[in-house]
């Protein structure tokens, strides 16, 4: 790792590290950067809340239709795909490949009910 690269971090520590880095900025840039980081964090949390709600809805539908194979995911309209950069589309493609592997690495044949 060279002197200018940051070590690998979790999302939480990256966010905290970014906030700490703001202290070294000049006052005018600090205010602007704080607002940007705050807006980005709020946007990310809102997206994850939507994602969590969709997964809960799909999980409940799968539980109601327990005789069918569980299905997770949603169709992304072309307009939404156009909003993503090339790297994000590459990540989606890798995720799709992993999720549709025939070896069933992530499939769960046990009951969907939690074991207590």
UniProtKB/TrEMBL annotation:
GO terms for biological process: mitochondrial respiratory chain complex II assembly. Its main location: mitochondrion. Keywords: Chaperone, Mitochondrion, Signal, Transit peptide. Residues 1-31 form the signal peptide. One of its GO terms (cellular component) is mitochondrial matrix. It is found in: Mitochondrion matrix. PANTHER family: DC11 ACN9 HOMOLOG, SUCCINATE DEHYDROGENASE ASSEMBLY FACTOR 3, MITOCHONDRIAL. Belongs to the complex I LYR family. SDHAF3 subfamily. Plays an essential role in the assembly of succinate dehydrogenase (SDH), an enzyme complex (also referred to as respiratory complex II) that is a component of both the tricarboxylic acid (TCA) cycle and the mitochondrial electron transport chain, and which couples the oxidation of succinate to fumarate with the reduction of ubiquinone (coenzyme Q) to ubiquinol. Promotes maturation of the iron-sulfur protein subunit of the SDH catalytic dimer, protecting it from the deleterious effects of oxidants. May act together with SDHAF1. Interacts with the iron-sulfur protein subunit within the SDH catalytic dimer. This is Succinate dehydrogenase assembly factor 3. It comes from Sus scrofa (Pig).
